[in-house]
Amino acid sequence: QVEAPGSYQQDPWAMTDEEKLQAVPLIHKEGNELYRQGKVQEAAAKYYDAIACLKNLQMKEQPGSPDWIELDQKITPLLLNYCQCKLQCEEYYEVLDHCSSILNKYEDNVKAYFKRAKAHAAVWNVTEAQADFAKVLALDPSLRPVVSKELRSLEARLREKDAEDKIRFKGIFSQ
């Protein structure tokens, strides 16, 4: 297969460290474009590739060193984008895992709390979802309309589930 000049993209494992650093913003941009086009799975794969490049570079640094921290701060927005894709793909436990790892390092990351709250809500971890949404509001009160909408949606889903459970379990103990 013949490719146009500049269209070939080298696999991350074959890149030098410098090439990886230069490739990350381009891969990030490609992921964003795919996401805008509604190609969520493909976007997630791009974000994953960019994260892999940075993680590979980060492994060569002393944890906690300025270079390690700088790379970690580049990984975080990519990981949040990846989590947004995973939320849309209904892969909630992966979102919970990644957002929690971000929050272990950066406890004031509003986006990580918000995405984790949505994932908790999706898997019926109501208390955890409410706590994360409360943390979002504490960190950024301007998000009150969005958080209120999410909480109303969660309450409606809970009422629906309770009604279904009442029908499903009606008479189960009266035999």
UniProtKB/TrEMBL annotation:
Signal sequence residues: none
PROSITE patterns linked to this entry: TPR
Keywords annotated in UniProt: Repeat, TPR repeat
UniProt repeat feature TPR, residue ranges: 110-143
KW Repeat (keyword) present: yes
Gene3D superfamilies xrefs: Tetratricopeptide repeat domain
InterPro entries, per database record: AIP/AIPL1/TTC9, TPR-like_helical_dom_sf, TPR_rpt
Subunit structure: Interacts with RET in the pituitary gland; this interaction prevents the formation of the AIP-survivin complex.
Role: May play a positive role in AHR-mediated (aromatic hydrocarbon receptor) signaling, possibly by influencing its receptivity for ligand and/or its nuclear targeting.
The protein, known as: AH receptor-interacting protein
Native species: Phaetusa simplex
Gene name per UniProt: Aip
